[in-house]
Write a structure and sequence with these properties.
heterodimer; A: Sulfite Oxidase, Chain A, domain 2; 5-stranded antiparallel beta sheet; 4-stranded mixed beta sheet; 25% helix; 20% strand; B: Fumarate Reductase Cytochrome B subunit; 68% helix
Chain lengths: 256, 207
């Protein structure tokens, strides 16, 4: 287990970073602009290979990588946990928008919508969720960009929640819709993993808005972009729901 | 891959220096390494470890998601091709024949001779000690790149490897410096090939 040095996270730097990785129209055609030195060198003389087919070939490999990761994933192997002294302070804010645009969700009106392959469809208040057995973890959040940060998260086991809503655990996907218009989806084995947590707290306090108030899904077995914040709806389905970044080219499984 | 004793193909004449499987795996490895290094630089730029960024036009993928797709596609080529290379090399006995014995003393002597311009490539079927050390280094460095890459890709699923490399954050640095060492090797390697162009022909035609 490593005890990482605290990275020098500065709020402005993190906001700048978030803005930098914001999606843009051009990014969706990354291959057109992406075939720079290396790509051109590889494809020179290979005019038969169109950019479109390169893009779809890479997407197919990404789908194969989803399967490879599902095979590697162990439903019982736990991510390493850390001591409070090893926590990264401040824990970085990261989203596809800047800190000033974090959504403000009112706790009293909040209802978590539940739909899809479940037997209990009634919406949940925060108090309903908090009544489930409480769990806590200090784990490493690994961002797709490479950096990592250790945080302390409290909440309930997502598996307990899925049991309460009578989720069909033989279904393939659990999808999430968020108050910040983010959306993502995960595989059922990860949804049932003991460290997959429906998170209500950060470091012993009510989850701050910047980390996803009122609800976030914390999975130390997946990269950061797979951990949705400001969750307002959960659904169980066999139809591939994709995700905000995943639809632009990030790998769907996104495991770590 | 092994020599057919009764009817050796024309390719496998006694003057053959690099068997076909070696040439194929060498050039496939070149493709994999070029894609992995250039896309890796783009991935590195998303969250630089040091006060260093790679010029955007030197990178592959256009944005982080594209670079990751190239990286996680080419990794299969690197690993699959690397396994074929190691298996064929070890099974044929070529690995031992061409790379061993190797002593620090011999490397030092050949290095001094090379720097004085007195190391000849008279017999291309025989590697001098500096070549042996350099090629073995490349093999082990690539192995380290793959192992540290596995930790970055799946740090939770490979706990033993993760702990051996000192954790996720340490593995990032190992991966970076192993890349830097590989690039240094490639620069030296290509320089030597430019000085002795005949070695390029050998790696293309086998003799």
């Amino acid at each position: 287990m490593s005890s990482s040095k605290k990275p020098p996270f500065d709020r402005d730097v993190v906001v700048k970073e978030a803005l930098r990785v914001m999606p843009s129209a051009s990014r969706r055609q990354f291959l057109r602009h992406g075939l720079t030195l290396g790509g051109l060198a590889l494809l020179t003389g290979c005019d038969l290979v169109s950019e479109q087919s390169v893009e779809s070939a890479l997407m197919r490999v990404s789908r194969l990588n989803d399967r490879a990761q599902a095979l590697l994933f162990s439903p019982t192997r736990l991510a390493p946990t850390y001591t409070p002294a090893e926590m990264t302070r401040p824990f970085p804010f990261n989203a596809y928008y800047s800190l000033s645009r974090v959504p403000a969700v009112a706790a009293e009106d909040f209802r978590l919508e539940v739909s899809g392959l479940v037997t209990e469809r009634r919406p949940w208040t925060l108090a309903d969720i908090a009544a489930l057995p409480r769990v806590e973890q200090i784990t490493r959040h690994i961002c797709v960009e490479g950096w990592s940060a250790i945080g302390r998260w409290g909440g309930v086991r997502f598996a307990d929640f899925l049991a309460r809503i009578g989720a069909d655990t033989s279904a393939r996907y659990v999808g999430f819709k968020c108050a910040d218009d983010y959306y993502t989806s995960i595989d059922m084995p990860t949804a049932l993993h003991p460290q997959t947590q429906l998170t209500l707290e950060y470091d012993g306090e009510v989850l701050p808005a910047r980390y996803g108030f009122p609800l976030k899904l914390r999975m130390p077995t997946k990269l950061g972009y797979k951990n949705p914040k400001h969750i307002r709806a959960v659904f169980v389905t066999n139809t591939y729901p994709g995700g905000y970044w995943e639809d632009q080219g990030y790998n769907w499984f996104g495991g770590s | 891959m092994s020599r057919a004793a009764a009817h050796p193909p024309s390719d496998e004449s006694p003057t053959l220096i690099h068997p076909r499987w070696l040439r194929i795996t060498h050039w496939l490895n070149v493709c994999a390494v070029v894609v992995l290094v250039l896309s890796g630089w783009r991935i590195y730029n998303a969250s630089p470890l040091f006060d260093l960024r790679f010029p955007r036009e030197w990178t592959l993928g256009g944005w982080l998601g594209g670079a990751l797709q190239w990286h996680f596609a080419a990794m299969w080529l690197l690993v699959g091709n690397g396994l074929v290379y190691l298996t064929a090399n070890l099974a044929s006995g070529r690995f031992v024949r061409r790379f061993l014995p190797l002593s620090p003393r011999a490397v030092w002597q050949d290095l001094r001779a090379a720097l004085r311009g007195r190391l000849t490539h008279a017999d291309p079927s025989h590697y001098n000690a500096v070549q042996r050390a350099a090629y073995l280094f490349a093999v082990f460095d690539l192995l380290l790149i793959v192992l540290s890459g596995l930790v970055l890709w799946k740090s939770v699923q490979f706990p033993l490897l993760r702990d051996l490399l000192g954790g996720y954050e340490a593995a990032r640095r190992v991966h970076f410096f192993a890349m830097a060492a590989l690039v240094a090797f490639v620069l030296l390697h290509v320089t030597m090939v430019a000085i002795v162009p005949r070695t390029l022909v050998t790696m293309l035609r086998g003799r």
